[in-house]
Amino acid sequence: MSTDGIDFKDVQRRMDGALTSFKNDLASLRTGRASSNLLDPVQVAAYGSTMPLNAVATVSVPEPRMISVSVWDKQMVGAVDRAIRESNLGFNPIVDGTTLRIPLPELNEQRRKELVKIAHQYAEQARVAARHVRRDGMEQLKKAEKDGSLSQDDSRIHSERVQKMTDETISSIESALSGKEAEIMQV
C-alpha cells in the first residue's frame, strides 16, 4: 500500500526485520543455561565452503548444562570441533565418536558483564538499523513532496507516522535488551 510516495507496510516490515535479527542475536548469547541457539553463530569449513553448524550436524540439549552435537559425517568431526573452539564462544567440546558434548560451566561475574556488553552492542546495531529505515522513509517523503505528489501537511503527518513506528521498534528493542540483561545477570 503506497500512500502518496511511501509504503508503510515496507517500512514496518523492515523495522520488524531489524527487531527479529536483534532477537536472534540475543538468542545466541549464553546465559548459563544450555540452548541449541548458542551455536548458531558457528560456521564450519566443510566440503570446500563455509556453512552453518546445523547444516552438518544436529544440535540438541540433553541436560540443562550440556549441549550435544551429533555430526552426520564422521570425517567432519574434526572440522566441527575446530569451528566450535575457534568461535570465541568459550566452549571446550569433548569428542565422543561422531558426537561432541559441550558442558557449560557456570558464568563468573566478569563473563556475565562481557555478555551484557555484547547484548548492548547488538541492541545498538538494531537501533541503527531502525534509524536507517526511518531515514529511508523520510527521504521518500521528501522526494514525494518535492515532486508535488504530496502536500507539506500530508508529508508532516506521514513523517510523524514513520517516527512513531521507529519509536515503537526502538522501545521493543529496549524491552528485549532489558529482559536478556536480567537473564544474563541472574545467578
Structural class: alpha+beta
Q: For the report, how would you describe the main beta sheet?
A: 4 strands, antiparallel
Euclidean distance between termini CA atoms: 48 Å
| Major β-sheet strand ordering | 5-6-8-7
CATH topology of the largest domain: Topoisomerase I, Chain A, domain 4
Measured as a percent range, the helix fraction is 40-55%
Average pLDDT confidence is 86
Q: What share of residues are in beta strands?
A: 15-25%
Tally of contiguous helical segments = 4
Going by CATH, what is the homologous superfamily of the largest domain?
A: Ribosome-recycling factor
Query: Which CATH top level class of the largest domain fits?
Result: Mainly Alpha
Overall geometric form: elongated
The arrangement of helices and strands along the chain is EEHEEEEHEEHH
**What count of domains describes the coordinates?**
2
CATH architecture of the largest domain: Orthogonal Bundle
Uncertain parts:
none
Secondary structure tally: strands: 8
Structural write-up:
This protein has two domains: 103 residues, Ribosome-recycling factor (Topoisomerase I, Chain A, domain 4, Orthogonal Bundle), CATH 1.10.132; 71 residues, Gyrase A, domain 2. It is elongated, with a radius of gyration of 22 Å. 55% of the residues lie in helices and 18% in strands. Strands 5-6-8-7 form a four-stranded antiparallel sheet. It has a two-stranded antiparallel sheet with strand order 1-2. The chain has a two-stranded antiparallel sheet with strand order 3-4. It has four helices and eight strands. Helix 1 packs antiparallel against helix 3, helix 1 runs parallel beside helix 4 and helix 3 runs antiparallel to helix 4. With 187 residues, it is of the alpha+beta class.
